[in-house]
Amino acid sequence: MKDYDDKKLKSVTKEGLDMDETDDDKKKKEEEKAKFEPLCKLMKDILGDKVEKVTLSNRIETSPCVLVTSEYGWSANMERIMKAQALRDSSTSNYMVSKKTLELNAKHQIVDELRKKADVDQSDKTVKDLVWLMYETSILTSGFSLDEPQNFAQRIHRMIKLGLSIFDDGPAEDDDLPPLDDAAAEEVDTNRMEEVD
């Protein structure tokens, strides 16, 4: 069913959802867009090719962000179904899977505080961690599956440590050994390879 009572039906999980807006709403939206444009650009730079673009949303009220697909892309449920197929065309699935848009809720306190923090220092590691955490959380809440759940778990554990005021990384596995630098790590790998040969 494509339409009902001369109204075209649209999926709310797809980008380009138009709501009836007054002139005041449109003006307010333009002001918010200008205010949040640096944050959207920063988030796109951090996330790279994981998202096609980062924009402000007019569809969400309670969540800080949501992940939507392009108008003709697969929904989260369709993506799950296609990933479960034994014989699938990987080139087509890669093309369809990659078209996602991260939409931000400008009214949400988390997004507003993240914008303020990013305005102070865009290279802050905490900002990058929070951007990734928001993206990965939006993957889950939007019905998609995580590609690297262990990275998501590590970020969650870091946030839990911050919440519990644990600022050290904990004891090392072997306190007698100094940490390996890159050169030492490469030498160890080379020695192991020689042993295998």
Explain what the structure shows.
With 197 residues, the chain is mainly alpha-helical. The protein has a single domain (16-170), classed as Up-down Bundle (Four Helix Bundle (Hemerythrin (Met), subunit A)), CATH 1.20.120.790. It has helices spanning 23-47, 76-84, 90-97, 109-120, 125-141, 149-163, 182-196, and strands spanning 3-4, 7-8, 53-56, 65-69, 100-104. Strands 3-5-4 form a 3-stranded mixed β-sheet. Helix 1 (23-47) packs across helix 4 (109-120). The longest helix has 25 residues, at 23-47. The model is unreliable at 171-197 (pLDDT under 50).
Rounded to an integer in angstroms, the radius of gyration calculated over CA atoms is 22 Å
Order of helices and strands: EEHEEHHEHHHH
Treating each run of at least 4 consecutive H or I residues as one helix, how many helices? 7
How many individual β-strands?
5
* Order of the strands making up the biggest sheet: 3-5-4
Computed structural class? mainly alpha
Helix residue percentage: 40-55%
CATH class: Mainly Alpha
Q: Which second-level CATH architecture applies?
A: Up-down Bundle
Which stretches are poorly predicted, pLDDT < 50 over at least 5 residues?
171-197
DSSP strand (E) fraction?
5-15%
Query: Sheet bearing the most strands, described?
Result: 3 strands, mixed
Annotated CATH topology:
Four Helix Bundle (Hemerythrin (Met), subunit A)
CATH superfamily: Heat shock protein 90, C-terminal domain
Q: What is the domain tally?
A: 1
